Structure formats: C-alpha cells, structure tokens
Structure prediction request, 76 residues.
Amino acid sequence: MTRGNQRELAREKNSKNHKNKANSVSETEANKGLSLQERQLRDAMRMREKQQLAEQKKAAGNNNASGGGGAAASAN
Prediction:
C-alpha cells in the first residue's frame, strides 16, 4: 500500500503551521518593541504582584478560617 502524494501534502501543511508559530511570541501585540530581557523583567514584575496578592488573600483567609474554627471547637 503506497500513500501516494498524501505524505508530501502533510509535510507541506505541517511546515506552514510551524512557520506561523515560530514568530508568534515575539510578534504579539503585548510583546512588540520589547527585547527578550525586557519581556522577562515585565513578566517577573507581574508574577511578583500576583504572588503578593495571593499571599494577602491567603493571610486574610487564614484569619477568617482560624476564627471560625476556634468558635466551632469551643462549641463542642
């Protein structure tokens, strides 16, 4: 069983897909005009902000949870 032209067509289609994806990271609207190092610094700052927010939420959640848990324990 030979596949004929199907294999060659699949290779062409695959190569077209990979050409479009190779440039997508550097050409997105948010990344235009930024070097790799600038993008890394920007992303690191965003991650620090997200971590701080998560820590604040966790701290606020622990205060509420511990208060509610203490009341439930004393009722028993």
